[in-house]
């Protein structure tokens, strides 16, 4: 799957969930949608993990100097 924006992946995932929840699609199509949903879920998770790594908290040390720390 090509590189995708988080919002686009989430929107597609929500549409798939809505279709699956209606329960009015054939099993074979439901399985394909489920598989696509899993892939989209993994994409969203990877994007969130990458974003979390980039977030840093700006704090002051004992001497009042600003420093950065990884976000936990």
Q: Output mean pLDDT.
A: 88
Please tell me how large the radius of gyration is. 19 Å
Strand order of the largest sheet: 1-2
Q: Describe the main β-sheet briefly.
A: 2 strands, antiparallel
Distance between the termini: 30 Å
Order of SSEs: HHEE
Number of helices: 2
Class from helix and strand fractions: alpha+beta
Q: Label the overall shape.
A: rod-shaped
The share of residues in extended strands comes to 5-15%
Low-confidence stretches: none
Number of strands: 2
How would you describe this structure to a colleague?
This protein has helices at 6-22, 27-54; strands spanning 56-60, 66-70. The two termini are 30 Å apart. Strand 1 and strand 2 form a beta hairpin. It is 62% helix and 14% strand. Helix 1 (6-22) packs antiparallel against helix 2 (27-54). By secondary structure, it is of the alpha+beta class. The longest helix has 28 residues, at 27-54. Strands 1-2 form a two-stranded antiparallel ribbon.
Descriptive key words:
2 helices, 72 residues, 2 strands, alpha+beta, two-stranded antiparallel ribbon
Topology record:
Elements: H1 6-22, H2 27-54, E1 56-60, E2 66-70
Antiparallel strand pairs: 1-2
Helix pairs in contact: 1-2
Summarize the structure.
With 72 residues, this protein is of the alpha+beta class. It has helices at residues 6-22, 27-54; strands spanning 56-60, 66-70. The protein has two helices and two strands; from the N terminus they run ααββ.
